[in-house]
Amino acid sequence: MKKYHYRFSAVLAFAALFIFGSNPSAFAVTTPAGQDKLRVITGEPKRNGDSLFSYTVEWRIDEGVTSRATGIFFIKGPDRPKATSDIDIAKKMVTSLNDGMEQQYPSWRGVLAEYVQGKPEMSLANKAGFSFTSVTIRDYSNQKMSFDQMDKTFASTGVKVAIDLVLTADVDYIEGFTIYDPAKNAGHQGSIEISLDGGKPVVIKTDNKTTAQLEQEIASALGPGQFSPTPLFPNLLDSDNRNNKPFDGGEVQFTNLAAKTITLDINDPTLGALTKFQYPDTNQSTDALNPMTMIMLLGLAVAGFFGYTTYQARK
C-alpha cells in the first residue's frame, strides 16, 4: 500500500510541476481590489425637461471572461416641480448600476459602486479577482461633472480618456414614444467648458457649430487632446435602445493625460456628452488556466508519468 501512496504522490507532484512549468500564470496572484478606480463628482442639471443619463462599466474576470453592467435613469431639469439634485444623481448612479448587475451571476459582479453620504460624489472600484476594461458615462442634462482616480494621474495608470459630443435630440427620440424633430439639433447657442486639475477652463462657444467642429476646437485648445475619427473603443450595446448611441464619426481623445482630474461643463441644451475611460487590459496576458485546460494537462501529466515508469520497469 505504501508503494501506491508513494506512486500517487509522485504523480501529483510531477503533474503540478508540469502545469506550472508550461504556464506559470496558472498560479498568478488574484487582481487586488481597488486596483482600478473612477470617482465622479456630479452637478445640478441645467437642461429643462427630463434628460436621460446612463453609464456602462465593463470588466474582466481573472479567468479571462468579460462582463458588463449599465445603470440608466432620467434626470428632472430645473423647470420641474422637484428637480433632480446633484446628490440625487450620485445616489441614482449607485442604485442603477447595482440594479444592472442583478442580471449577472453573483460570482460575475466585479464592480463596487459607493455613494459618499451627503455629497454629490460616487466612486467605482474593481472587486478582488476582476479588472476594469472600460467605462462610458452618457449625460444629456448639461450638468457639470468631474472625473478622477482619486490620487493618481490618468497617464500613470495607463487610463485613456475620450469625450464624444452628441446631439440630445437624437437621444430624445424613442420610436413610438416621441416624434423626431431635426429642428432641435439646429441653432446651438451656448458654451462648453473643460478644465484639468481645477485650472482655468477652456471655453468653446457652440454657436451653430457641428459636434465635429467643436471636438476639433477642444483638441486644439487642450494640448494633451487630439481629434480622432475613430472611437477609443467600440460603443457598447445595451438591451435598452435609449442607451445605444451610434458613433457619430469623431471624438476628442487623451491617450496620455498627465492630470488627476478632468472637468466637463456643457451649457447648451442641444448637446450632450459621452465621456469614456479605457483601462489597460493587462489581465489577458496573466489569465489563469481555465478548469478544462487544467484537467487536460493533468491527464497528460499522469499518462506521461505512468508511461515513463512502465518503460523503466520493463527496461
Can you give the helix content as a percent range? 10-25%
Major β-sheet profile:
7 strands, antiparallel
- Mean pLDDT over all positions: 82
Oligomer: single chain
Overall geometry: elongated
What is the string of SSEs from the N terminus onward? Answer: HEEEHEEEEEHEEHEEEEH
Cα-atom Rg, whole angstroms?
25 Å
Strand count: 14
- Low-confidence stretches are 16-27, 285-294
User: What structural category arises from helix and sheet content?
Assistant: alpha+beta
Strand order of the largest sheet: 4-5-1-7-13-9-10
Number of separate helices: 5
Spatial separation of the terminal alpha carbons: 24 Å
**Residue share in β-strands:** 25-35%
Name the descriptors:
alpha+beta; 315 residues; 5 helices; seven-stranded antiparallel sheet
Structural commentary:
The protein has 315 residues and is α+β, with helices and mostly antiparallel strands. The protein contains 5 helices and 14 strands. The protein has helices at 2-22, 86-101, 168-172, 211-221, 291-314, and strands at 37-41, 50-61, 66-76, 111-115, 121-126, 130-139, 144-148, 160-167, 191-196, 202-205, 226-228, 251-254, 261-267, 271-278. The strands form 2 sheets. It has a 7-stranded antiparallel sheet with strand order 4-5-1-7-13-9-10, covered by helices on one side. A 7-stranded antiparallel sheet has the order 3-2-6-14-8-12-11. A hairpin with a 5-residue loop joins strand 9 (191-196) and strand 10 (202-205). It starts with a helix and ends with a helix.
